[in-house]
Structure formats: structure tokens, C-alpha cells
Amino acid sequence: MNELIVLNPTEQFLQDSNIMMTLKDVADYVRKEHKNVTRDFKKMIAELSDDEVGQLKFELSEYRDASGKLNPTFNMDLKTMLLVMTKYDHSLRLQVINLAFERLEESKKLAVTEAKKLNMNTKGECSVRRAISEIWTDDNVKAPSETDIWNSLVWRKFVVTTAKVTVARTIPIELNGYVGTMKARGDVKFLPETVETVWNEFVEAGRPVKSEYERLKEEFAEISKYYETKLAEAKGGN
């Protein structure tokens, strides 16, 4: 079966990204009359065989005009859109690609927004990493590192750390549900405003504790010494 239109690598990438656009959106973008583009699209479809139509992806849709009235249009994939627009002018092909990239960027931003929502529980609490992105949104203000934030939370005794094979950060049992929420060891969530308040207090106090790195290094050293002793005892017992 012959391809109706051959896509270059860039176009194939967008096609594989499942970008869908309405005929109305594209007509407006390339400054064509929607009714004329719709007429030509219907004519083109009528002239194709069933096998050729099967290569395309489109469906009836609607758009709302300036008066609020709903009007019919078509929603279609990039391949179908390119086939329609190249009938007019091959330079329009590039314009359609540009619009497709805009839509791809919009969908990515929406996906990030939705993903962020999933990281917050019903109380509005979230991970420390997420809290940092929520608090320090100004590009001109340097955000503290995640390690710095953990240092401040440990200093405030909102978190305790335990050095094992891996580091487990937990909220003290008596504070769980008050300063933040912990469902499992290492899975702790805080309100961004709590993180911000603790960080500001920590900075104002001159960051008065050893860094978490230094403390954990000492704890790991103690653990290593303990296991060395146990291994020596076990060896001696043999």
C-alpha cells in the first residue's frame, strides 16, 4: 500500500507523540478560511479509497466561536493535517509543524502540572523536593539545596535521621500528623509553608548544627566499627 504522504524524521517524531489538532486551529494559524479548508478536506476524503482513508486519523469535533456558538470541525493527527495543508502551499507544512511543537510543549507543561498535583496529599503536604519548587519560584532567588532543607528540619527536630545501609528520614512519632505526615520510614511530607518557616529560622540561627553529611558520616563510622567487632567475635568463635 502506497503511503499518502512521507514524513521526515521531525514530522515522524511529532506523529509518534500523538499530537492532535482541530482543523479550525490550524486554519486560523495559517490564516486560511476554516470553511474553505473544511470543504477541501471533505472533497479529498471523498476521493480516497478505503485503504487510503485507513491511513489517516480524524474525527468530527466542535469549536466555539466568538459569540459562544458551537460549530463543527475536525480533530486530526499530524499526518492527516499535513496531507490537507500541503494541498495549498508546501511552506504551510512548516507552519503546521511549528504549531504541532507548540501543542507538544503545552501538553508537556500540563503533564508536569498534573504530576505535581499527584505528589501532594489532601492536606497539601508534599515531598521536600516538591516543597522547594513550590516556595522558591523566583528565578532571581537561589533556592537552598535539598540537603540544606533536611539540615534545617533535623535542627528543628521535625525530622530524625538514622544511618543504616541507607539513610532513613522519619518524623518523630509524637510529631507525626502535626509537623508533617509519615506513612512509612523515609516517606515524609510537609506543608511548603512549614518547610519555608523552618528554613528561615535555621538561617537566622546561623545554621547551628553539623551538616547532615557530617553527622551521617560519623554514624556510619560507628556502625562500621560495630560490625567489625561483631565479625571479629564471629571469627573468633569459629
Q: Find the structural class using helix and strand composition.
A: alpha+beta
Give the helix proportion (percent range): 40-55%
Name the overall outline: elongated
The run of helices and strands is HEHHHEEHHHHEEEEHH
User: DSSP strand (E) fraction?
Assistant: 5-15%
Quick overview of this protein structure:
The chain is 53% helix and 14% strand. The chain has ten helices and seven strands.
Please characterize this protein's 3D structure.
The chain is α+β, with helices and mostly antiparallel strands and about 240 residues long. The chain is built from 10 helices and 7 strands. It has a 3-stranded antiparallel beta sheet. A hairpin with a 5-residue loop joins strand 2 and strand 3 (about 70-75). The protein is elongated, with a radius of gyration of 29 Å.
List strands and helices in order, with pairings.
Elements (H helix, E strand, L loop, with lengths): L8 H8 L3 E3 H7 L4 H14 L2 H4 L4 E7 L5 E8 H8 L5 H28 L9 H8 L10 H10 L4 E4 L3 E4 L10 E4 L2 E3 L2 H13 L7 H26 L1
Antiparallel strand pairs: 1-3, 2-3, 4-5, 6-7
Helix pairs in contact: 5-6, 7-9, 8-9
Provide keyphrases for this structure.
single chain, 2 domains, three-stranded antiparallel beta sheet, two-stranded antiparallel ribbon, 14% strand
